[in-house]
UniProtKB/TrEMBL annotation, chains A, B:
Chain ranges passing through the membrane: none
Name of the protein this chain belongs to: TesB-like acyl-CoA thioesterase 3
One Pfam family hit: 4HBT_3C
Domain spans labelled Acyl-CoA thioesterase-like C-terminal: 159-281
Start and end residues of each Acyl-CoA thioesterase-like N-terminal HotDog domain: 38-123
Length: 286, 286
C-alpha cells in the first residue's frame, strides 16, 4: 500500500486523539489519579506495557514540576486488565533542572482491595530547555520505504491473536524482520518498523513511551513462539520528536537463562534519535 | 607488567575483602540499615556510584526474599559523601521467582535532618535457579592481554585527580581507549578494561554493580574533560560470574542535548555475558 493510504482522512492532533483520551487521568486528590484502562490497547487479553507506561508517565507529568520524562523505569508486578485503575504518585525530589518521583498503578481484586500492577521510578525535566548540541555517532535504522513494509492490515496478520492495539497503531514492519510471520524466523534478534498512531496524531514524549514497546517481540525472530512478559522497562527520552512517522528498531543480543533484553531505538522524521530503551523480559523457550 | 604481578600475594575471599567490609550494612530494624560510607571508593571527592549501588543492593538482598539483583535501577538525587548513611528499604512485592523492592540512601545535613541521596527500584531473584540455556549472539570485547594494558599504577595516571578508588581496583585499560590520557582522545565513545578487585576477591552479583560504573567515562574519549554525573543507572545481572578477571566494555552512541548514555557489558573468564547496564549521565560540554 502507499504511504498516503496509511494516513487517516482527518489527522488527529496532540491532545485530541485516541491515545490522549485513553491515557487521560483524573486527579482524585493531590498525587492520586483515576483512570479507566482502555480495552483498545490490548494484545490478546494483556494490556500493552507501553500504553500502561504512558498512563503512569502522564500522571507523573502532572504530579512533578517538570513535564517531560527524561528517564523512566517501570517494574511490572502483576498483569493489568482493561477497567478501573488508580495511580498513586510521590514526589521524591524537586530540583531546578530535574525532578524525581515514583508512581504505582493499582487495580482491584474481587474483594475491592487494591493490587499493585506496576511500580515506576522516574526523573523528569524540560526537553525544550536542553542545548541543541548533537554529537551522536548512532545512525538511523535502514528500513525500506513504507509501501514496501507490511502491517496487520496487509495480512497474514504479523501480530498473532486478536490484538485490539493493532487498530490504534500505524505499524509497517520491515520484511527483513518478518520471517517469523511466514514460519521462517531469521534467527536474528531484530525487529524494525515504521511507527505512528492510527489516527495520525504526531508523536510526543508520552507516545514515545508507547513506541518502544509496541512492536512484535524480537523473540519471534529468534524462533520463540510464546509470549515475552516484561519484567522491567527503562526509557530515556532524549529529544522532542518532530512531526511525521517514527522509525523503531529493536535488538536482542543476550537470550540466556530464560531471560532476554530488548533494546529499542526510536528515530524521528528529522533523523534524530529521540528515545532509547531497554527492557528485561522472560523468554518462554519453545 | 605481567598478569601475575597484578594479583595480590594473598587473595581475598568473597565475604572477607575490602569490598565486603565497605559495603557491609548493619540492620537497625526491619528494613532499615546503617552504613559508614568508606572514603576508599571516592573519585576526587565523589563517592563512586557503583560502590553506592552495591551498598543499596546489599541492603535489598537482606530485605527481600531473593538474594540476587536481576534488574536494579538507581536515580542519583544528591552527591554522597564518605561517612554515616542510612538505607531504608520497602518490599513492593514478594513473588515465587522474583521479588521487587525499593531502597533509599540518606545522609544527614548540618541540622541532622535526613537528605536523600539515591532512590532505587529493583527486582531480585535466584541466579542459581535459572536454566542453563545460552543463545546469546553477543561476542566478548576484544581487549589485549593484561600485560599490554595500562592501569593507574602504570602512570601517567589514566584516572585524573586523586582517586582513592584506584587503590581498591585492578583496572587494566585497553590502550585503544586511552587516547584521552595522552591528550589525543579517539573521538569514539568506547572504554574497555580488564576489571577486578585489588585484593583479588572474585566477582559476585554485588560486585558486578560496581564493575559497570568503575571505568573512566567514555566522555573522555569523546573529548570532554569535565565530570559526567550519573542521573540514572540500570543494571541487569544475567549470570553468576565465574572466578577470574572480568572484561568490561562501555560504549556511548548518543551524546546530545547535554546528556549521554553509557552502555556497559561485563564478561566473565568463561566468556559469559554476566551483566548489562545503561546509564543516563549529564555531559558537561567543554
Amino acid at each position: 500500500m502507499s504511504e498516503a493510504a496509511s494516513l487517516p482522512a482527518v489527522q488527529a492532533r496532540i491532545g485530541d486523539s485516541e491515545f490522549d483520551r485513553d491515557t487521560a487521568v483524573t486527579r482524585r486528590e493531590t498525587g492520586v489519579y483515576d483512570i479507566d484502562l482502555s480495552a483498545g490497547w490490548t494484545i490478546i487479553s494483556a494490556v500493552n506495557g507501553g500504553y500502561l507506561l504512558a498512563v503512569l508517565g502522564r500522571a507523573l507529568a502532572d504530579a512533578l514540576p517538570h513535564a517531560d520524562p527524561f528517564t523512566i523505569s517501570a517494574h511490572y508486578l502483576t498483569a493489568s486488565h482493561p477497567g478501573p485503575a488508580v495511580v498513586r504518585t510521590d514526589v521524591v525530589r524537586s530540583g531546578r533542572t530535574l525532578s524525581t518521583g515514583t508512581a504505582s498503578l493499582f487495580q482491584y481484586d474481587d474483594a475491592g482491595r487494591e493490587v499493585e500492577r506496576i511500580r515506576v521510578l522516574a526523573s523528569y525535566g524540560d526537553l525544550d530547555a536542553l542545548p541543541d548540541d548533537v554529537r551522536t555517532t548512532a545512525v538511523p535504522p535502514v528500513i525500506p520505504p513504507m509501501d514496501q513494509c507490511f502491517g496487520p492490515e496487509d495480512g497474514p496478520a504479523p501480530v498473532p491473536g486478536g490484538s485490539a492495539i493493532t487498530d490504534r497503531l500505524m505499524l509497517k514492519l520491515d520484511p527483513a524482520t518478518l520471517g517469523w510471520a511466514l514460519g521462517a524466523p531469521s534467527g536474528k534478534g531484530e525487529m524494525r518498523s515504521w511507527f505512528g498512531l492510527a489516527d495520525g496524531r504526531d508523536a510526543d514524549p508520552l507516545s514515545l513511551l508507547l513506541a518502544v514497546d509496541a512492536l512484535p517481540p524480537t523473540a519471534f525472530e529468534l524462533g520463540l513462539s510464546g509470549w515475552v512478559p516484561t519484567v522491567e522497562l527503562t526509557v530515556h527520552v532524549r529529544s522532542r520528536p518532530a512531526p511525521g512517522p517514527l522509525r523503531v528498531s529493536i535488538t536482542t543480543r543476550n537470550l540466556a537463562g530464560g531471560f532476554l533484553e530488548e533494546d529499542a531505538e526510536v528515530w524521528d522524521s528529522a533523523d534524530r534519535l529521540v528515545a532509547q530503551s531497554r527492557q528485561l523480559a522472560r523468554a518462554r523457550l519453545a
